[in-house]
Write a structure and sequence with these properties.
alpha+beta; Pnp Oxidase, Chain A
Amino acid sequence: MKLPEPLFKVINPIMTGLLKSPIHGLWSSSLMLITFTGRNSKKVFTTPVRYIETQGTVRCFTSSENLWWRNLRGGADVVLRIKGKDLPYHAKAIDDNPEEVEKWLVHYLGLFPQDAAYHDIRLTPDKSLVPQDLARARDHAIVVEATPAH
């Protein structure tokens, strides 16, 4: 089920508070906070997102319609709060490689099929992704890829 977009204006601050609280463990196995600085505004933003981690690289997903990821084009230093710890990372938005986006989107939705609706991808009765929807979604999905800062 896809929640209405305006509801996130209420949910995101609540989730941010919960992920910063001592009871974060109820959510932080799949949700993290990403904190970044706006390229033009220089304001600091924090947003909760679902994430996956593979071999030290953390990935999260958003839609090209959302604006926050644009601050990560070309790479940017961020802080990820994962499992109650704030750690420095270097993140980049992948928006120009549909094959790479599709590869990680398929992996991600294999773990979290309930999020397919947020990418306008329908599921078949056996919970597999509708191929035509996936082909369309890969052109609108953004993968944010973060590696530990050195």
